[in-house]
Write a structure and sequence with these properties.
globular; 2 domains; Rossmann fold; 15 helices; alpha/beta; eight-stranded mixed beta sheet
């Protein structure tokens, strides 16, 4: 069964070279295209950017504000930007209005069988309008950030997308955490969990993932933002260093870089902490494999946001690197405590240090956790499996003739 899909998104890479904060979205669409499923993207413009073709996928962009100020989307998640800079509410109103007309026009042009809305607040509104006029099936997928935004403003805003939610043919969440958030607003409405995928090899040389650095390296990868809890990791590392000679490698970049560097200096850890800003893929792969433990110390930030899933944990486990993480958000869908990794309470550097030391001081346990974690992510998150599940869900709603 071949069919056409229209994906309405808050943001999409502006070039094939861009280091995007949503690489899984690009991979999802590329893999759908590889299965001969038609894929078109509708996304907001960014400072006047027009239509493009990226990775062979048509990307239609709609204008919503004068070029100079057209920057509500991209770089930072839109709900986060709205919380940080409330004046963006003006752009957000225009974004929704222009998206409705753009979605309806494009849907009539390409006549999709399925309209798939990613981050349904607020784009469930144009998605539903386009689905109605083109008689397409409507799919909504939530990723937690938009629901956290609604949680801070429960009531009126959540009601804005209640009608599209009731009309949707399929509602998806990227994790059980996101599904639970959804159910707080829309109890009784069915939602299915479908995570993002990752390329997990069938097998690797069992020694390759364990050829670790000496002294052992503790690795973090991610954006330098509050909800990642990197400051908690640095304070935990200070305690680990008192027990085990080791190094902390912090890979990524973001607005908290200077603050984190100052904390490292204040704690006298300059010689033991390395900041590696935006590594190329091959070097990042090497870092994952060399690390003795990968740590994601996520917290709930001042806006109530945390990890919707935690893809970096999958990246680590796919290389048989043991993981330690916080018991927060969708992380628990990946890290089963004492099975696929170790969990600590969010924001607790003492407990986090204990868990890290447990991995570093017990090589047998580290190896067993890494092996179990590898097999788990291979089964649950491998791209082929995830895309197959998505396609089957698409086919299911297409075969159901009733809306």
């Amino acid at each position: 069964m071949n069919f056409e899909t229209l994906h309405i998104v808050t943001a999409f890479p502006r070039s094939e070279q861009e280091v995007t904060i949503t690489p899984w979205l690009v991979e999802t669409l590329r893999r759908l295209k590889d299965r001969r499923i038609g894929v078109t993207v509708l996304a907001p413009s960014y400072k006047g950017l027009g239509d493009q073709t990226l990775w062979g996928i048509p990307v239609k962009r709609f204008r919503y504000f004068p070029k100079r100020w057209e920057d509500l989307t991209h770089d930072v998640a839109t709900p986060v930007k709205l919380q940080q800079k409330p004046h963006y509410v003006i752009q957000s109103g225009m974004l929704v209005l222009r998206s409705i007309s753009a979605a309806k026009k494009l849907a009539l042009e390409i006549r999709p069988d399925i309209i798939h809305v990613h981050w349904p607040f607020p784009f469930a509104i144009p998605g539903a309008a386009a689905a109605k006029i083109s008689r397409a099936k409507l799919v909504l997928k939530f990723y937690s950030a938009e629901l956290v935004f609604l949680k801070k403003r429960a009531g009126f805003l959540s009601n804005l997308i209640r009608k599209p939610i009731n009309k949707a043919d399929l509602i998806l969440a990227n994790s059980s955490y996101t599904a639970a958030l959804f159910n707080q607003f829309y109890p009784g409405r069915e939602i299915e969990v479908l995570p993002e995928g990752y390329f997990v090899p069938e097998s690797i040389d069992e020694n390759e993932g364990l050829s670790k650095s000496d002294p052992p390296e503790i690795l973090f990868v991610g954006r330098f933002v509050e909800r990642k809890g990197i400051d908690v990791l640095i304070r935990a590392f200070e305690l680990v260093r008192k027990r085990i000679e080791s190094r902390l490698v912090i890979v990524g970049g973001g607005p908290m870089e200077n603050e984190l560097r100052r904390l490292v200096s204040e704690l006298g850890l300059d010689g033991s902490v390395e900041f590696a800003i935006r590594l190329p893929e091959d070097e990042l792969d090497s870092r994952y494999r060399k690390a003795s433990v990968f740590v994601l110390p996520a917290i709930y930030d001042r806006y109530g946001d945390t990890e919707g899933l935690g893809m970096v944990l999958i990246e680590a486990l796919a290389r048989r690197t043991p993981v330690v993480a916080s018991r927060a958000g969708g992380i628990v869908d990946i890290v089963r405590d004492n099975q696929t990794g170790l969990l600590a309470e969010p924001g607790n550097p003492d407990e986090l240090a204990v868990k890290i030391i447990e991995i570093l001081s017990d090589s047998d346990k580290a190896r067993n956790l890494a092996e179990t974690g590898f097999e788990y992510v291979r089964k649950q998150f491998d791209w082929d499996n995830v895309i197959e599940k998505l396609v089957l869900k698409y086919k299911r709603i297409l075969e159901n003739s009733t809306r």
